[in-house]
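for the writeup, i need someone to sanity check this before i put it in the appendix. the sequnce is what the collaborator sent (i think, or maybe the updated version? ugh). structure was predicted straight from it, no edits. if anything looks off just tell me and ill rerun, i have time this weekend
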Amino acid sequence: MARFKRILLKLSGESLMGKQNYGIDPERLEDYAAQIKEVSEMGVQIGIVIGGGNIFRGLSGSKKGFDRVKGDQMGMCATVINSLALSSALEAVGVKTKVLTAIRMEPIGEFYTKWKAIEAMEEGKVCIFSAGTGCPYFTTDTGSSLRGIEIEADVMLKGTRVDGIYTADPEKDPTATKFTEITYDEIYAKGLKVMDLTATTMCKENNLPIYVFNMDVVGNLKKVMDGEPIGTLVKA
């Protein structure tokens, strides 16, 4: 029996690069698709938000002279490219998908509504939510929080390159220690960069737990659904 019935899976666009310096690594994409299929076959209803950092990040673009609004719109388009790639990979392994966009761009994807998403998930399709919130100045973390709350997910699973939340960046500080559980308030107090503050606050105010784990290790998504304590749970 899966630990959660309906999940919002947040995937890192940068992780899609795999061993490359840019773009989409087909091998990493296939790994993600295989893991998602495994969980879908457990009867779990799945919504996915994927970032666009492997192609373009609006905030970093604005530091290089791009208009912030246009930069964020470019970032939204990057998430659409990644969403289409993931949809294609999932369809290739027999998983039905529906790509929903926060801005109108038929026939690339259908315009997002909560009810359209829930109906598709109840039919067994994996819903991929692209183009962030459709508004500038919001990250895909905030988009994930918003979609997770809207679709009434049991949890937001944040798939990253590390296996949970640490006292410091474990890639930079070898003395960093990992939390098994932590509260939203502790994240604020300790200044931990799990997600941006807007996203974290939305989850806190709407009682959406966050589970941070390493998605880049094949099989980890199923371990989370089986209840194995491989990451960090954030809750009130």
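The chain is about 35% helix and 20% strand. The mean pLDDT is 95.
thx in advance!!
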